[in-house]
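Sample pair:
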Amino acid sequence: MSEEHVEDVLEGMMRQSLAAGSQLAEQVARARQQYLRNVTQQTEQATIEAQRSLAADRAVMQSVLVPTARDAWWDKAQPEQIAQAHVLAEAWKDYDPAALEASEKITSEVKSRYGIDTSDMQGDSGYMKDYLAVQQRAEAAMKEAKEHAEAMALVEAAQAEQINRHAAELKDELKRHSVPPEYLANAEMVSALQASKEATGTEAAPDADRTVSERMHLIEQDGITGPSVDDLRQEIGQNYSGADDAMFADAAFVATARDWHEAKTLAEGGFVDQGNTGLAARYENAEKELFTRIAPMGQEIQDKVLNDPKTKTRSATVKSTEADQSAVPTYGSPEHYSAFETSLQGTASEAEIKGRVAVARGQATPPRAAVQAPAKTPKARKSSAGVGAGRDRSNDGPSR
């Protein structure tokens, strides 16, 4: 190959290389331009998205913080609402004037209303929420106590006015029976004094005067308001086995228990001997009503202990024959307790058996023994006891 021919080949190859290089450079330039356009578009899209997100966050912030400027909002705000507002205000206060203003408002209100310095919270919204909840509960309790005290003051004022009115109306009776004016807070005492006043000079006067004396005795023993439900529950429990706490939610049962207690207290105070011939019947009727209510529960409990089919009560679906009924001892009868004691033989010591039988029998005073006049009749004393004089009981019964 000649030298000229070699130069032509090299020149052609050079031209091809330059052409290829130009094309590659053009492609690279176009790719770079496309890349720059993509980056620009992505940046613009990201900016738009960021602006949208910022606008949404700002809207949320404003919806939470704007109400904090109103005192009415603070009167009803819950701890979690206050904590949320505080967090948002602290996050935005360097970027939004409204948030800065809200932050200052929140700091001031929390300090004045709850005694909390937000600078000590160090961004702990959970602690603030819990602290505010405790403070609000305490304030609610104080408010409730204040309202209760105000209501009680109104009741006491109305009661005092009523007592003064009764005292003026029954002045002579109060003096004649030596009844302290504060006893007029007892409605039964007022009724007794009014009846005594109306019966003056009639054949009913002795009975009316005795009723006043009886009411005086009951107030001396139980206080002006009488025995509480807890007092009755304890006394009934000591005298009757099988009494359940749920029974004392029944107003009728409580009324019967109170009637029984009053009859028992008056009998022990000697008022049978003073002419109250109906006291025995009152005691027996009240005791019968109590026993009627308590006996089914006592029967059920004792049936479980006895585990004797003959002593079990009749269910709604299983009926016993007349022969079976006659074979079952009456609940509360000596035969019943004898069967109960027999069933316990071999299950416990003799002392434990006697104790369980004693509990089953209860310790109620028999009606006739309770209303029997004592050998030495006590005299009703004139009382000067103040409001709330209560009973002083011993193991042998009430004493004064």
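The beta strands are 392-394, 397-399.
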